[in-house]
Structure formats: C-alpha cells, structure tokens
UniProtKB/TrEMBL annotation:
Organism: Champsocephalus gunnari (Mackerel icefish)
InterPro entries per record: CYP11_CYP27_families, Cyt_P450, Cyt_P450_sf
Stated name of the protein: Uncharacterized protein
MF term (GO), any: heme binding
Claim: Oxidoreductase is one of the keywords in the record: yes
Amino acid sequence: MAAWLCRALVQRNGRLLLSYPNSVGRLYSRGVGSSSPAPGALSAFQDKPRTVEDLPNISFFELIYRMVFQGFYNRLHELQIYNKQKYGPIYREGKKSVSVNTPQLLEEVLRNDEKFPTRGDLSAWKEYRDMRGYGYGPFTEDGERWYNLRVMLNKRMLHPKESAQYGDDINDVVTDFIKRLSYLRQCSPEEDLVPDMANEFYRFSLEGM
C-alpha cells in the first residue's frame, strides 16, 4: 500500500501538503509571527499584504532532487528544517500547496478553518480504497461529509465513558510498542539505540487506529 501511495503522490506533484484553504489566505496579510525567517527569504514582502504568488516557491523538480538525489525521502523531518532555514516559516511547494513551519502559524491556520474544511489532495488514498472496495472515513472525507462523520464520532470518542471501552485494546498496543522498543535497543550495537524511531512511531500510530 505504501509503495502504491508514494508513486501516486509523486505523480500528483511530489508531496501531500496543505492546499490553499481560506484560513491560509487570511494568514498572508497578517505577517508571519515572531519567528525568524531565513535572511532575505521574506524581506521583499514582509511589510505589505501578500498573496500566494508572493511566497517563496519550491518547484516540483527541486523537491524531487532533494528527496531522490540528496536522500531526504526517508528524512522528511530534516527536509522541513532545511526548507524553513532557506525559505522562512511559510512557503509554497509546487502549484497547489503551502507549508507552514511554526507552531504559531499552524495554530492560526487551524483556528481559522471553516466549518466544512478541505484538507488537501487525498485522491491517492481514495483511489486505493476504491480499488480495494473500502469505504471512506474521517481521514479521507472532506467538506460537509467529513463534518457529518465527525459529529457522529464525537458523540462516542470524546465522552470518557464511551472511550473507556477502548482502553484495553490501546493498552495492548502500547505494551507491544514498549516491548518492541526494548527489543530494538538490545539489537543495536550499543544496546541503547532505536535505529529508526520515526518509522516505529508510524507503525504504532497505524496499529493504534
């Protein structure tokens, strides 16, 4: 599944990021907070209202070069740090995506989101689920259909009495995760290091869902 999704996402401009919601558009005209951008990255427009076109842009070909030839494909967190240092806390990636790289900006985006949000291009996930005959859920739906699903889930997942029934299953997942980390540490040369912690967290999150 992961390989199929990666291939599909690359065909759709390289990365799955935040597409242009209205909340991001409103963010441009209010500045970028107190974070320090890369020298000169935002100096041309930091004191005037901005549009999407004013933001520094990472082209699709540059993104492919960074991921494939510079080896960032399995170090995406380092790529985000590199891009923030070079382009500042907010920039475009490709034609349809905007990346925000500070907690303050991300908080503002999320707080200004609409009632029926649109969360980027999830067509690869939807195509995969269609191919397998699976239905959609809150991770793949958008707009009003996502909202209706979320309202139903909130009644179950956000009430302590309802969520308590999942406690044993979650505890089993956490216990297995701790045992695996201990095993990986023992297998490392120094017997105290987990080689790929990010990948283990991905697996833990998937199992927890």
